[in-house]
Structure formats: structure tokens, C-alpha cells
Design goal:
Elements (H helix, E strand, L loop, with lengths): L12 H36 L15 H6 L7 H10 L1
Length: about 90
């Protein structure tokens, strides 16, 4: 203590909240990246099996423009929408 001022090295509630938010953001980022890696690995297996570019739900060919923007996609747009609405 110096001249009536005490310095605390303990984290306060704001510090704890900030750290918790940063941990949550990092955890969500790790989960998102992990999911993307699994989706890419799955796409590579479909490529090896000669099934790349085919919808795994209906078997139709996925349009090239969709494959260009989401090359790891498993579904055509119609089946993707149906899959998302089921969740």
C-alpha cells in the first residue's frame, strides 16, 4: 500500500466476464473449424470414391456454381434446405 492506494492483482468481475466471453468465442471458433475440417475430409473421401459432386440425399448432381462456392457440400440446394428445416 502506498499513500492510501492499494493495488489488487486479483481479477474483478469484469475481468472474469471478459475472460469467459473470450473463452466462449475461442471455443466456438475451434468447433467451427473442426466441423469444417471434418466436412473437407468427407468431401475428399467422396472424391476418392467417385461420388464427389453428387448429392448424398437424392443422388442428383450438385450444380458447379454451388461446388465452386462450397466445395465440401454434401447436398444440392433443395436437400440442404430440407435438411436445415428438419433441425
Amino acid at each position: 500500500m502506498r499513500d492510501g492506494i492499494r493495488v489488487s492483482l486479483e481479477p474483478d468481475q469484469l475481468d472474469n466476464t471478459t475472460l469467459a466471453v473470450e473463452r466462449d468465442i475461442a471455443s466456438a471458433d475451434i468447433e467451427r473449424r473442426s466441423t469444417l475440417v471434418r466436412e473437407i475430409a468427407d468431401a475428399l473421401m467422396r472424391l476418392d470414391a467417385g461420388e464427389y459432386g453428387m448429392c448424398v440425399a437424392c443422388g442428383s448432381e450438385i450444380p458447379a456454381v454451388r461446388m465452386h462456392w462450397v466445395p465440401w457440400t454434401r447436398y444440392c440446394v433443395r436437400c440442404q434446405k430440407a435438411n436445415e428445416s428438419e433441425r
